[in-house]
Design brief:
The structure holds 2 protein chains of 2 kinds.
Chain A (H helix, E strand, L loop, with lengths): L1 E10 L7 E11 L4 E6 L5 H9 L6 E6 L2 E2 L5 H4 L3 E4 L13 H9 L13 H12 L18 H13 L5 E5 L7 H18 L2 E5 L3 H6 L3 E6 L2 E7 H6 L2 H20 L1
Parallel strand pairs in A: 3-8, 3-9, 6-7, 7-8
Antiparallel strand pairs in A: 1-2, 1-4, 4-5, 9-10
Helix pairs in contact in A: 3-5, 5-6
Chain B lengths: L1 H23 L7 H17 L4 H24 L5 H20 L3 E3 L8 H5 L6 H22 L2 H11 L1 H6 L4 H27 L1 E3 L6 H15 L7 H22 L7 H14 L4 H25 L1
Antiparallel strand pairs in B: 1-2
The chains are: A alpha/beta, B mainly alpha.
Chain lengths: ~260, ~300
């Protein structure tokens, strides 16, 4: 479903601040795969997601989604295949739009937007059903401005908006990191439910190792723009945070050694 | 006094255009000063050339829309700062408007215009003309409201509210901005053509400072009618435009020099922008917002 081949992304190329963010990343997601991505700051996790989504154009390599080459497409064209939730709970919704207007905008993803009424009675019924599943009582507040909702509610809504139109790929960029523990747990649960319900192929970046192990069927660890460690299936189920920390330690030892050499 | 209502309603079309760019798209578009005159120039020239006034007025609106399209292209494809893109179009239009008119002033007095009927029956500046213009503005206002609630209109609103989000939902914000600017300046060009017919001439300087009048209308309107729901936002803009013209009229009647009108307009807008930041008003707004959130929370608790 997602094919990333030898992806390279270099920021500030040909300047003294040149930074290689992705250094030849290869990654294939089969349909229904749910891959969690961990790694230290600057490892290239978010860059990987942003290149897939079309925010950045890579210096080398290709990205294919569902067989289509999307490497050079801008964000709004890639959006035909991709649903996204950002780290910032404010980023995924429009504050001055109502809940139903926001949902209508997400509902139209991948379709031509014309002069049809955005929020129709039929759509409102669909929205109400979808919102019920969040158990946040938002189904009774369809005409509330999203700007009046809390961060957790907005992130739950963003997640719904990214998933209910059943994208080919779901990209989650530390989407629970800015929430308090209770809300983070809620959004985590909703994520699992939505992915399971629609069978979404998902790529999720997280800093939380528990989350990375608990969610999804595969895990990759990134470091300095490369994928350096991978877990899948039973191996992943059996792994603990200690195992992951051990992998991190190995990296640290290597970089210390290179530093001293 | 009733002619102030006439003018307020016609300029209301222009104010709706300004509302669309400044408030909805969050794009400070200065094309307006030029595109208003362009609308007037095209309409007047075509009427003098013997074209039907209906066609001439429509052509004025289309000319305005093209001006908006140019500003939109300069900003989105050319990556030029919004203010600068608008100013560039506006300045270029000054020369183009002179070309269209052939000279600085085009009188329309003995020609057949859309308003000839009203003028001949001495209905201009009476409740009859006020009613006619009110209906015209309401039609465009409702059309704008309808448009803003279509799939495309929602995408346009979101472009001004959270650009990144709507791009991630598959919308080219370049296109929505260009569309918004074209529709906005189309309304402005339409207002220009109607004003030329109302006052009986098109003049190269008739658009100068108009953006301030448009902004004043939007700001005054939102002070008078604060709601944003349903049609209240656009209705506020039209009401604001009428109030603005009445204030100007009163100032003139009180003996103010017509040459000082631009100064008075500017001060009016500055006051409208600064007053809400004063402590008293800020406190009022904060209370209103608190009440809204409280009400929302209470509703939630009641249902839980």
């Amino acid at each position: 479903m997602l094919e990333v081949r030898n992806l390279r992304k270099i920021f500030f190329q040909h300047t003294p601040n040149e930074k290689v963010a992705l250094d030849g990343v290869d990654l294939t997601l089969a349909e229904g795969d749910f891959v969690t991505v961990i790694g230290s700051n600057g490892a290239g996790k978010s860059t990987l997601l942003n290149v897939v989504a079309g925010e950045f154009r890579p210096e080398g390599g290709t990205v294919h989604i569902d067989g289509a080459d999307v490497t050079k497409l801008p964000v709004h064209k890639v959006a035909r295949w991709v649903g996204r939730v950002f780290q910032d709970p404010m980023a995924g919704t429009t504050p001055h739009g109502t809940i139903e207007q926001n949902l209508a905008m997400a509902f139209a993803r991948g379709r031509t937007r014309g002069l049809r009424t955005g929020v129709t009675r039929a759509k409102r019924e669909i929205f109400r059903e979808e919102l019920k599943a969040l158990e946040l009582d938002l189904e009774n507040r369809l005409r509330t401005d999203v700007g009046l909702l809390s961060g957790g509610q907005r992130q739950a809504l963003s997640l719904l908006m990214a998933t209910f139109s059943q994208p080919k790929i779901l990209l989650l960029d530390e989407h629970t990191a800015a929430l308090d523990p209770a809300r983070a747990a809620l959004v985590t649960r909703l994520t699992d439910e939505a992915v399971a319900r629609h069978g979404l192929t998902t790529l999720m970046v997280t800093h939380n190792m528990h989350q990375a192990l608990a969610m999804g069927n595969r895990l990759i660890m990134m470091h300095e723009g490369r994928i350096i460690y991978e877990l899948a299936g039973e191996q992943k189920q059996r792994a603990t945070t200690d195992d992951l920390l051990h992998e991190f330690e190995k990296l640290k030892a290597v970089s210390d050694r290179t530093l001293l050499a | 006094m009733l002619s102030a209502l006439d003018l307020g309603l016609i300029y209301g079309l222009m104010a709706l255009g300004v509302y669309l760019t400044f408030r909805v798209l969050d794009f400070p578009d200065l094309t307006v000063d030029g595109s208003f005159t362009t609308g007037a120039a095209v309409t007047a020239s075509l009427i003098i050339a013997g074209q039907s006034p209906w066609l001439a007025t429509a052509a004025g609106a289309v000319a305005g829309a093209i001006a908006g399209l140019v500003t939109g292209m300069l900003h989105t494809k050319g990556k030029i700062n919004p203010l600068l893109a608008g100013i560039l179009t506006q300045i270029a239009l000054y020369s183009i408007n002179l070309r269209i008119m052939g000279r600085a002033n085009l009188p329309l007095l003995r020609t057949d215009t859309l308003l000839s009927g009203l003028r001949d029956d001495r209905h201009l500046g009476t409740w009859v003309s006020v009613a006619v213009f009110a209906v015209v503005v309401l039609v465009f206002m409702l059309a704008l409201d309808w448009f803003l609630n279509t799939d495309l209109g929602l995408a346009l609103q979101a472009t001004g509210d959270n650009e990144r989000m709507i791009r991630a939902q598959g919308v080219s914000t370049d296109n929505t901005k260009i569309l918004g600017l074209a529709v906005s300046n189309g309304l402005v060009g339409l207002a220009g053509g109607l004003i030329a017919q109302y006052q009986g001439f098109a003049d190269i300087g008739m658009g100068i400072g108009l953006i301030v009048a448009g902004l004043a209308s939007v700001i005054i309107g939102q002070a008078v009618i604060p709601g944003r729901r349903f049609i209240f936002a656009t209705l506020a803009v039209v009401v604001g435009s009428v109030v603005y013209r009445i204030v100007i009229q009163l100032a003139l009647q009180a003996g103010a020099d017509p040459n000082d009108m631009k100064l008075i307009s500017a001060i009016l807008v500055i006051a409208a922008l600064l007053l809400p930041r004063l402590g008293v008003f800020r406190h009022m707004r904060a209370r209103r917002r608190e009440r809204l959130i409280e009400a929302a929370a209470k509703g939630e608790a009641a249902r839980a």
